[in-house]
Amino acid sequence: MRVLLRVLAPLVSLAVAGIGALLVIEVVAAWVSPGSGSGLLVPWRDWRSTAENILWTAQPVLWVAVAAIVAGVLLLVIGLLARRHDVALDSPSAGLTVATAPRVLARLVGSRVRALDPITAASVTASSGSVVVRARGRGEAGALREEARAAAAGVLDALPLTRRPRLTVRATAEVPGSSRSSQGVH
Amino acid sequence: MTADTTPTTPVPLTGGPQPSDGGSASAPADPRRAARAARRAQYRSAGGARWGLTLLGVVLLAGGVLTVLLVNGVFGQNRPHRPLLDPMISEFLVAHGTVARVSAIVAGTLLLVLGLLWAVRGLRPEPRPDLVLDAGSGSEIRIDSAAAADALAEGASALPGVTRARARMVGRASAPAVRATVWVEEDLADTGVAEICRRLDSEVLPEVRDSLGYPDLPVAVRLELDSGPRDRGPRVS
C-alpha cells in the first residue's frame, strides 16, 4: 500500500497541476481571442457542443459516474490504509523514540514458541494491537495452548512495548498417524 | 491581574545550535517538543500524499454518487432529461463572463501551484542536514551529516546484543534529528531489548549529543532483528 502511494502520488499531483495549467491557458486564450478554432490545446468547444447535446439519461454518463465512484473508493482506500504499522516501544527519555516492525515482534514470539519441546510448528501474525499464535504440537491441545501462551506472554512482558498487544493462541494437537504419514513422504 | 508581569510559559531554548557548556545542556528544553521532534524523525512523512489522494478520492466518489442520484431522478424527475451542460448554466456563465473567467483562472492557478508543490514535495530526496555549531566570533563549525550520524551508529553498534547499526540525519538544518536503525541479535535474552534501549539512552546518546554540541538532539531508533547465525556466513563482494 505504501509503495502504491509513493508511485501514485506524484502521478496524481502532476495530473492535477496539468489540469490547472490547461484550464488557465484555455481560459486566457479564449478571453484574448474569442471564437478562434475549437480550442488552443484541447478541443473544448467540441466538448461543449457534445455536453449541450447529451442528456443525463445517456448510458455513457452512468458508466463515467460508476468509474468515478470506483476510482474514488480506490484512492480513498489507498489514502486511508497507507500508514505505517510500526510497533512503538517505551523510550526511556523524551528525545528518543524506539519502534520496531510487526515482523520483528512476530519473529521474537515465534522463535520463543517454537523453542518449546512439544511444539512442532508455529506461525505468528503480529501488529501493534494484537498477536495471534497458531501452534501445532504433540500432546493435548489445551496444554499446548497454555504452554504456547505462557511463552508468548513472556516475550510480550519482557519487551518494553508501549501498548501490550492482545494475545490470541490457537493450538492444534498433531494426530500421531498423520505425523507419521507426513514423515513417510520425505 | 498579573498577566503582564509574570510569564505564563518558560522561555524555551532556541532550536538552533548551542555549545554544550554545561548548565542547561543535560536537560532538553521542552520534553513534549523533544518527543514530537523524535517522533517526526521516525520515518519520512507521507501525510501530504495521503491527504491529497484521500481528498481526490472523496471528490471523485461524491461526483460519481451525485451523478448516479441525478440520473435516477432524486433531484427532480425532469432533471435527467436535460443536457449535461444545461442552457440555464451556459446563460448564467455568459451573463457573468468576467467573473466566470477570473474564477476559472484562479482555480486553474491554484490547481497548478498545489499540484506542483505536491509533486516537488513527494519527489525531492529527503534532506540530510549538516550540523552547524556556532563557534563564536562570527565563525561556525560544520559537522558533515554522515559524520554526525556515524557517531551515533558507532556508539549503538558497540552495545552488547547489537550486531550493526546505521544512522542518518533528517529534518531541517535549523532542527536536525537522527534516524537510526539498530539490528539486534535474534537470540537475544527476553530483557535484552529493554536493556539496549536503556543503555542507548543513558550511555550512547549523552555522549553523542555532548560531542556534537546538541544537548537535545532528537533521535528515532528502529529496532530490527538480525538474521540468524545460519545466514551470517562469509560475504562475497
Write the layout of secondary structure elements.
The complex is a heterodimer of chains A (186) and B (237).
Chain A: H1 2-32, H2 44-53, H3 59-81, E1 87-89, E2 96-100, H4 102-114, E3 119-126, E4 130-137, H5 141-158, E5 166-173, H6 176-185
Parallel strand pairs in A: 4-5
Antiparallel strand pairs in A: 1-2, 3-4
Helix pairs in contact in A: 4-5
Chain B: H1 31-40, H2 47-71, H3 87-95, H4 97-123, E1 131-134, E2 140-143, H5 145-157, E3 162-172, E4 175-184, H6 192-212, E5 219-225
Parallel strand pairs in B: 4-5
Antiparallel strand pairs in B: 1-2, 3-4
Helix pairs in contact in B: 5-6
**Uncertain regions spanning at least 5 consecutive residues of chain B:** 1-28
User: How many helix segments of chain A?
Assistant: 6
Give the overall pLDDT of chain A as a whole number: 86
Order of helices and strands of chain A: HHHEEHEEHEH
Unreliable parts of chain A:
179-186
H and E order of chain B:
HHHHEEHEEHE
Query: Structural class of the secondary elements of chain B?
Result: alpha+beta
Percentage of residues assigned to helices of chain A: 55-70%
Largest interface: A-B, 78 and 81 residues
Helix count of chain B equals 6
> Which percent range fits the helix content of chain B?
40-55%
The end-to-end distance of chain B, rounded to whole angstroms, is: 73 Å
Physical arrangement of strands within the biggest beta sheet of chain A: 3-4-5
Major sheet description of chain A: 3 strands, mixed
Radius of gyration of chain B: 28 Å
